[in-house]
Write a structure and sequence with these properties.
This is AEC family transporter. Keywords: Cell membrane, Membrane, Transmembrane, Transmembrane helix, Transport. Its main location: membrane. It is found in: Cell membrane. The chain is mostly helical and 307 residues long. The chain has one domain: Na+/H+ antiporter like fold (Up-down Bundle), CATH 1.20.1530.20. Helix content is 76%, strand content 0%. The longest helix is centred in the last third of the chain and has 26 residues. The chain is globular and about 50 Å long. The two termini are 15 Å apart.
Length: 307
Amino acid sequence: MIGVLEGVAVIGVIVLIGYLCARLGVFGGETANALSRVAFYVATPAILFRILSHADLRVLFSDYMAVAAVSAVASGLIYLALALLFFRRPAGATAIGAASAMFLNSNNIGVPVAAFVIDDPQAIAAVLVLQPIAFTPVLLAVLGATSGTPRSIGRVLTQPLRNPVIVAAAAGVAVALLGIELPAVVEVPVDLLADAAIPVVLLAFGVSLVGRRVLEPGADRAPIIAATSIKAVVMPVVAWIVAEPLLDLDPAVVFATVVVAALPTGQVIYTYASRFDRGVVLARDVVLLTTVAAVPVLLVIAALLHP
């Protein structure tokens, strides 16, 4: 479990630095929004392009991808059903809640977990490809459509072309499919910007915690509890059902897919929520709570399923 502990520790230290800087007055009230804009328009597109341009897209047709896709979609649908039945919220906030229940922290926790716990990078590679290609464009389209700005039909249809995250993901997939060798003058700046993505997002997240309590009373409390429970518990259970009883996969693959499904919500959801000002508190609390819950959940999975 050293990979889990290392991943959580890295997140905690950088978030704490952002929090302390805000508490000490080094960062002002608009810093979190400014950092989130940097992440959305520059750093996140760079890291997505880097990941996808070097990805082995054959994982799209692997057992890992099948389990990851079914468990994520099921988790999102369960949240949507609960939202419609019990806590009706605006469409943008509901989209953020569903995303919080299904998007994994595939980079700064997923990568060390794949290296130290699973010892199978293909398990996390499936999620690294799946989320930006399949899920992110849908989420951003919903958030853009509910932003409250009047839009013509042409502007709605061309919206994906004006979204830096979607454009970067599409460009990365194209480079991987075509086998293009990028020159250093392109790849080096992209790598430098990509390296900034995770710390920028985590610093913004730490700044956002100042003056706020987790699970504050209000309309967001029930959605936060629902999204956290689904992400931390339901999603890995669904992954196990798909991997073992349904597909009868090798025990090592079952273990790997369930561990990946138990990863906490990715901080990128907070970036999207901040950028569109939809479900910001919900995203922030679910990211924090699922990150804390990940350690005991992963320990239980290791005790029960480790081959």
